[in-house]
Amino acid sequence: WSSSVIVGRLSSLEEARAIARALEEVMAALVIVGTAHLALAVASEGHPSPGRRRAIAALYALNLAFALPTVVDAAISPPTMAADADPVGAAFGWAWVAVRLGTLLLGAAWLVQALRDVPPDSLRRRQLVVALATIVTGATGAALRMLPGISEQEPWFGVSFVTLAIILATYAALSAGIF
Fold this sequence. Notes:
81% helix; mainly alpha
């Protein structure tokens, strides 16, 4: 995702920018669902229920379906469309925002539910709390990048939250001795 953003911003070739924008959109859709998928894996200790596995599969399909128009036409900007007066464009833009943020919120909800079932002061609780903090921080950054207005005027603000979420995830992985 970040590589496609860099290529898209630095390239002077229109074809390269269009390909980078398409890759950026697909990767953003996948990273959002991947985050919820990882939250489910952590929350269920790697054993999600069949219903939740189906929910994740549906979220992959839904997020990719909402990414497709922007992949086909790089001029389409769902956050900009959400602020439009055109009701069809606004409906698509807000649905795009809702699907992406809803996916992240579902991942956070699975972690909150898992937190209810663990004893206080346990290693498992600390893992879940860091995972939840990562998801909430990343979702805040994503919201700031997706919502009309701030997403176009101050994109660095949302990216800063996403970067902080990556730092939290790295801390969680390294402190647990995963790598």
